[in-house]
From TrEMBL:
This is Acetate kinase. Belongs to the acetokinase family. The record marks 165, 226 as: Transition state stabilizer. The gene is ackA. It is found in: Cytoplasm. It comes from Actinacidiphila paucisporea.
Length: 385
């Protein structure tokens, strides 16, 4: 084995490439950045160009991708379907497999594939590892993963609950056990990943047993711009009565709904400001968001039976004391007692915000998807050499 200990993590989205260079010897972040506005007028032409820009930026900082210290590249890939349930070394066959899943993730997987191809061209000698956003949820039992639709139809079209944000749920559930000073195998956690996208998961002894996102990231919680759960007949109604096309409904539910659809803002900070001024639409958006969240807390409490911790993470979860307080207030019957003073304290570290008397610990754990991807990549590409 060489002494190479650095991992480049790439998160290639439809219009951006985010990157981090992490030295796994001490898990030190050497560099982080993003190239945005890919494919937009005046922006970066394509993913190849974006990665070259990222490489130039790293080189200017003495961290060029030609360095012998670079051990591997880890890629976030959104959809692994039922085929990819663990981090996977990229081969031509694996790339073709990710390509096959494009119909399930038409916006995300093509961008992820582009990122992998460009990184391979740049350093063909390096192991490239695909880390799937769906993988952590592959353990969900059939009873939770199946939709109650005709089985043959479902199987034919790959219709089942896959779940997303898995890298975050994996990292945060494990970090929660560490915060409690317990073995992940002994801890049951409800993880609430509340960012612009939002999802909940139920993790029993380190194994995911349920999650709120489904076939796509549209299901579940109210999000910044996505509706989350709704009666599927809403789609039919919009088609039949509203005369809307598939594309228009897709746009409505994924980009113009959620908090944005309810009040015109998708940023929880702005909603907080408006609520303080007595804005009714902002108040309603907040209330709908919280109501859905509490429903999932109740549902996943029943799924797990025993809950040791409820953990908040991502932009809203880590920063909004108001959301945490509203989501878990008056749940003493479920064993949850918040400590308002602890909850109001801002901080960057993993911390408890429940009262010492609370049977269920309530935690705030900053997520770190890049570090999780780097760990998975390093473990597969280097440590298992
Ligand atoms: P993420 O997708 O995890 O980056 O989260 C982005 C979201 O976090 C933004 O849309 C904001 O609504 C939310 N956010 C960030 N900072 C704060 C804050 N201080 N208070 C409330 N919400 C915040």
């Amino acid at each position: 084995m060489s002494g190479a200990t650095r991992v480049l993590v790439l998160n290639s989205g439809s219009s951006s490439v985010k990157y981090q260079l992490i030295d796994m010897d001490g898990e030190e972040r050497l560099a982080a950045g993003a190239v945005e506005r890919i494919g937009e007028p005046g922006g970066t032409a394509d993913h190849a160009q974006a990665l070259r820009e990222a490489a130039d930026e790293l080189k200017a900082r003495g961290l060029g991708l030609d360095s012998p210290e670079l051990a591997a590249v880890g890629h976030r890939v959104v959809h692994g379907g039922t085929r990819f349930t663990v981090p996977t070394l990229v081969t031509d066959e694996v790339l073709a497999g990710i390509e096959d899943l494009v119909p399930l993730a038409p916006l995300h997987n093509p961008a992820n594939i582009a990122g992998i191809r460009v990184a391979r061209d740049l350093r063909p000698d390096l192991p490239q590892v695909a880390v799937f956003d769906t993988a952590f949820h592959a353990t969900i039992p059939e009873a939770a993963a199946r939709y109650a639709v005709d089985t043959a139809t479902a199987d034919r079209y790959g219709i089942r609950r896959y779940g997303f944000h898995g890298t975050s749920h994996a990292y945060v559930s494990r970090a929660t056990a560490a915060l409690l000073g317990r073995d992940p195998a002994d801890v049951n956690v409800i993880v609430l990943h509340l960012g612009n996208g939002a999802s909940a998961s139920a993790v029993r002894g380190g194994v995911c047993v349920d999650t709120s996102m489904g076939l796509t990231p549209l299901e579940g919680l109210v999000m910044g711009t996505r509706s989350g759960d709704l009666d599927p007949a809403v789609v039919l109604h919009l088609e039949r009565v509203g005369g809307m096309s598939t594309g228009e409904i897709d746009e409505l539910l994924n980009r113009k709904s959620g908090l944005l659809g309810l009040c015109g803002d998708n940023d929880m900070r702005e909603i907080g400001r408006r609520m303080a001024e007595g804005d009714k639409a902002a108040r309603l958006a907040f209330d709908v968001y919280i109501h859905r969240l509490r429903r999932y807390v109740g549902a996943f409490t029943a799924v797990l039976g025993r809950v040791d911790a409820i953990t908040f993470t991502a932009g809203v979860g880590e920063n909004s004391a108001a959301v945490r307080e509203a989501a878990l207030s008056d749940l003493h019957n479920l064993g949850v007692t918040m400590d308002s003073v602890r909850n109001a304290v801002r901080g960057a570290a993993a911390r408890l915000v429940s009262a010492d008397s609370s049977r269920v610990a309530v935690a705030v754990v900053p997520t770190d998807e890049e570090l999780e991807i780097a760990r998975d990549t390093y473990a597969l590409a280097v440590q298992s050499d």
